[in-house]
């Protein structure tokens, strides 16, 4: 697994150049999170959210009991 005649190791020998696919992995991850975001937006627009009577007000809200 030597790169050249000077005895230096090939930097890709451990993973056999698998890091070349890192760009594809990033695209897959970004696509997954894009799909999750789209489902979340569709759910929000269709009304799948916490009903107003169950929403908690923040501690700085002066209208909270």
SSE layout and pairing:
Elements: H1 22-45
List the keywords.
65 residues; mainly alpha; 1 helix; 0% strand; transmembrane helix; transmembrane; membrane
Description:
Keywords: Membrane, Transmembrane, Transmembrane helix. The chain crosses the membrane at residues 20-46. The chain is mainly α. The protein has a domain at 21-47. It has one helix and no strands. It has one helix spanning 22-45. The protein starts with 21 loop residues before the first helix and ends in a 20-residue tail after the last helix.
Largest sheet at a glance? none
Number of helical stretches of at least 4 residues: 1
How far the N terminus sits from the C terminus, by CA atoms, comes to 71 Å
Oligomeric description of these chains: single chain
Q: Output the structural class.
A: mainly alpha
Helix share, percent: 25-40%
Would you identify the regions where 5 or more consecutive residues have pLDDT less than 50? none
- Which descriptor suits the 3D outline? elongated
Instruction: Report the order of strands and helices.
Output: H
Tell me the Rg in angstroms. Answer: 26 Å
Keywords: Membrane, Transmembrane, Transmembrane helix
Concise description?
The protein has 65 residues and is mainly α.
């Amino acid at each position: 697994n030597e790169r050249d005649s000077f005895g230096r190791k090939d930097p890709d020998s451990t993973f056999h150049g698998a890091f070349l696919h890192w760009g594809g992995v990033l695209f897959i991850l970004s696509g997954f999170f894009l799909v999750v975001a789209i489902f979340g937006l569709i759910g929000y627009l269709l009304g799948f959210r916490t009903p107003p009577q169950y929403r908690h007000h923040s501690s700085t809200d002066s209208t909270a009991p």
